[in-house]
Amino acid sequence: MPFELLLVETTDRIATVTINRPDKLNALNAAMLAELATAMGALAADHNVGAIIITGAGRSFVAGADIGEIAAESSTALEAFARKGQGTFRAIERTQKPVIAAVNGFALGGGCELALACHVRVASTKAKFGLPEVKLGLIPGYGGTQRLPRLVGRGPALKLILSGEPIDGTEAHRIGLADMLAEPDALMATTRAFAAGILAVGPVAVARALEAVDLGLDRSLDEGLDVEAKLFSSLGNTSDMREGTRAFIEKRAAVFTGS
Ligand code: COA
Fold it and tell me: In this structure, what CATH number is given to the domain that contains residue 245?
């Protein structure tokens, strides 16, 4: 897949998408958003890929949407801008393979929102998370006002959204914005080890677990439990479920085929 603003490579069934516009701290412009949508769609459909890592080249993960592209836009254009980014990030969130953000540096504005749309976030201690839009006279438009409170709670989310002030990786980990923390030089190894662990379990179960959590978060507890029961029962039609349970009983490692 040839891209201008992304590097995409797959090793041992783990794809790494590196946002590659380091001279602009990987600011997310329209071309990059389109490439990201294309790359993620292709990786989601690629049977040789079991997990996807998103990271940034240089000292930034993504330093936000490209401010130059929005400065003079009309209200109508801003709505289209927000909906486009939201759609791309929602598709990432609904990917039925684990998508893990390896947050190496600045994850500001749209960069923080991209990390929020990923299933799991691994942060470098040197990362800087923030939603600085209010400093630009804006609010987050790629899902930040919705995903951050769902993830860390209303108070901690509003602290970030209203102040616009960034926090480092350690603080992000403390409040639950980052799920794992690593020293900068161990970030990719830590992220890959986590991804490799998921590759060893049943891939259909992983997909259904992602689906259950995604669907359940938008529903009441009772509706979510109904979703869970249906997805749980659907696994009774897979050979992976028979193999996983039989392997436990036979005290051997399971060999999953993804069917
Ligand atoms: N949009 C467009 N360009 C951006 C950008 C963004 N969101 N973030 C960084 N850049 C560009 C800078 O304009 C600069 O380009 P130049 O070299 O052509 O002048 C380059 O990236 C390097 O950034 P610089 O500001 O010089 O680096 P720094 O280390 O001094 O500061 C930041 C880093 C992240 C604190 C600062 O770039 C920043 O505040 N960026 C905007 C963050 C933001 O508000 N994001 C939300 C957008 S909705």
Answer: 1.10.12
In a domain, 103, yes or no: yes
| Full domain range(s) for residue 244 | 203-249
Which of 99, 107, 124 minimizes the C-alpha distance to 17?
99
User: What tens digit of pLDDT does each residue of 84-136 get?
Assistant: 999 999 999 999 999 999 999 999 999 999 999 999 999 999 999 999 999 99
Phi, psi of 51 (to 5 degrees): -155, 155
Give the count of domains, the chain: 2
* 195 and 213 housed in the same domain: no
Write down the number of H helices and E strands in the chain.
11, 10
Same domain, 195 and 212: no
**For residue 172, what are the CA distances in angstroms to 124, 156, 160, 175?**
10, 10, 11, 5
Q: What predicted TM-score, i.e. pTM, was given to this entire model?
A: 0.97
Residues 44 and 150 in one domain: yes
Structure tokens at 223: 């509706």
Mutate to test the pocket of ligand 1, among 5, 25, 28, 108 (most ligand atoms within 8 A of CB): 25
Cα dihedral 247, 252, 255, 259, rounded to 10, equals 0
* Catalytic sites, residue numbers: 113, 133
pLDDT above 90: residue 218: no
In a domain, 37, yes or no: yes
Q: Is 133 in the pocket of ligand 1 (CB under 6 A)?
A: yes
Burial class (CB in 10 A: 0-12, 13-18, 19+), 17: buried
